[in-house]
Specification:
With about 80 residues, the protein is mainly β. The chain has a domain of about 45 residues. It contains no helices and 5 strands. The strands form 2 sheets. Strands 1-2-5 form a 3-stranded antiparallel sheet, with no helix packed on it. Strands 3-4 form a two-stranded antiparallel ribbon. A hairpin with a 5-residue loop joins strand 1 and strand 2. The two termini are about 20 Å apart. The model has no long low-confidence stretch (mean pLDDT about 85).
Length: about 80
């Protein structure tokens, strides 16, 4: 819709207090910051085949940096 990206999810919370409604989040990507980093990596022998496996520990997180870019709403059927 007019330069908007619409994402669909099945992880929408359903409120049942009184009438049925759904909590919806909306906003612009400028409102969030995300960071990810691989902090540890190991190369180990593959026990079931020839070669090596690489396993690592990846940490990530996010932060709200612009609350004016984000919002929440309720939708009623």
């Amino acid at each position: 819709m007019d330069r908007f990206s619409i994402f669909q999810s099945r992880n929408i919370a359903k409120n049942t207090s009184g009438t049925t409604s759904w909590s919806l989040m909306f906003g612009h990507s400028a409102g969030l910051a995300f960071a990810a980093q691989i902090v540890e990596a190991q190369m180990i022998d593959n026990p079931s085949d020839f070669g090596y496996l690489i396993r690592g520990l990846m940490v990530f997180g996010f932060q709200t940096i612009g609350a004016t870019y984000l919002g929440a709403s309720y939708a009623h059927p």
